[in-house]
Write a structure and sequence with these properties.
- With 362 residues, this protein is α/β, with parallel strands linked by helices.
- It has helices at residues 4-21, 56-61, 89-96, 115-122, 133-138, 140-148, 178-190, 198-204, 236-239, 253-261, 278-287, 299-307, 337-340; strands at residues 33-38, 41-47, 72-75, 100-103, 126-129, 152-160, 164-166, 193-197, 210-212, 215-217, 221-224, 243-248, 265-269, 271-272, 275-276, 292-296, 313-319, 328-329, 341-349, 352-359.
- Helix 9 (236-239) links the parallel strand 11 and strand 12 (243-248).
- It is globular, with a radius of gyration of 23 Å.
- The mean pLDDT is 92.
Length: 362
């Protein structure tokens, strides 16, 4: 006989798989999956599609009617018990006839944080937490955002074996192959927003959208552009879901008005001797509700994020080529990468290499 705890785990892992399908599209809400089971048969599955849409539990229960009576509900995250853009999930669960609920992680939001389970238990519906390490990892950025009101930052930088990111005079060089390009687009998709710099846009004119398996998905894009120099011909103007320019507090007001009239958001942030204040930018991203932000920048900005210890994760894409002494180096100063890393992993990715470093963040 298959152990009961293992059956619970299997269904909860399925809820996480459902939640992962919409990761990067639900913020400021967490992405959640739900499965309804009765007599060992899955009756329905649900996932939270986007903020303002029905939550996963409601989505799973919507078409079941009386057949759900006595069934078990599995959810990746504790059911909510408060009003937001939608009613509390606990009310829908109590009205459905569900007999018991199992969830994989307690919601860190103080509005829930055990209260959802308490409401259901008091209503006579058994509600039990079966904590999964996979759920803790999945909701890490959400928990961080709840506590700090800013996102976790993941950045990537492609370089040659000799630590170069471009040719002489900054000439653009295609470094990595298809496998790492897929990795980039996968991380763009699972992230809530993308952050880049005006230098990257001027040098490469990237689209910064998701292009996977024939689908093209626009994402919110933010640009560090202190003097609002973005060209009106930049591709990002047509490929981003929304576009926000972070600029210095002292800037030509006409440029601000022109960009706002064109549908672009402009946000003034303080500047330091090193450029725009990165912590102020992260706080602004948090205020917009983002949990995960993917950063695609050049060596200088990447170095600034590292030196200020603002990265949670860094991906170094290593191409098996040498660009030579005249090529542009990734960093202008030594950075103690390894001594600050709490996790390191090297993987072969096609003909290229991927070196992943994870850092502790305050």
């Amino acid at each position: 006989m298959y152990p009961i705890k293992n059956r619970h785990r299997d269904y909860l892992m399925e809820t996480l798989a459902l939640a992962s399908e919409r990761r990067g599209f639900c913020a400021p809400n967490p992405s959640v999956g739900a499965v309804v089971v009765k007599d060992g048969v899955v009756l329905a599955r649900g996932r939270h599609w986007a903020a303002g849409w029905p939550h996963a539990e409601v989505e799973a229960l919507k078409d079941l009617g009386g057949s759900v009576r006595g069934a078990t509900l599995y959810v990746s995250l504790e059911p909510c018990c408060h009003w937001g853009k939608t009613p509390p999930c606990t009310e829908r669960i109590m009205a459905s006839g569900i007999r018991e609920v199992y969830y994989a992680w307690q919601d860190p939001n103080p509005k829930v944080a055990g209260k959802g389970a308490e409401v259901l238990n008091q209503a006579g519906i058994s509600c039990e937490l079966i904590p999964l390490a996979e759920a803790e990892s999945f909701y890490e950025s959400y928990a961080y955002w709840v506590q700090h009101q800013r996102p976790l930052i993941t950045a990537k930088l492609a370089m040659s074996l000799d630590g170069k990111i471009a040719g002489p005079q900054g000439l653009t060089v295609l470094l990595t192959g298809e496998t790492l390009r897929y990795h980039t687009h996968s991380w763009r998709k699972r992230s809530d927003a993308i952050l880049t710099t005006i230098n990257t846009l001027m040098n490469d004119d990237p689209q910064l959208n998701v292009r996977l398996a024939g689908e093209v998905v626009p994402k919110p894009v933010y640009v560090l552009d202190s003097q609002l120099q973005l060209p009106k011909t930049a591709r990002i103007l047509t490929t981003a879901a929304t576009l926000t320019l972070f600029h210095a507090e002292k800037v030509d007001s006409k440029r601000v008005r022109d960009w706002v009239a064109a549908g672009v958001h402009c946000k003034a942030v303080p500047a330091t001797s090193q450029g725009l204040d990165l912590m102020a930018i992260l706080n602004a991203l948090g205020q917009d509700g983002w949990h995960d932000v993917w950063v695609e920048v050049g060596g200088r900005a990447f170095q600034a994020f590292l030196q200020q210890r603002l990265l949670h994760r860094a991906f170094f894409y290593i191409a098996p080529i040498l660009l030579g002494e005249q090529a542009l180096s990734a960093f202008s100063a030594p950075i103690p990468l390894l001594e600050n890393a709490i996790h390191r992993q090297w993987r072969a990715m096609g003909e290229d290499g991927l070196y992943e470093l994870e850092f502790a963040v305050d």
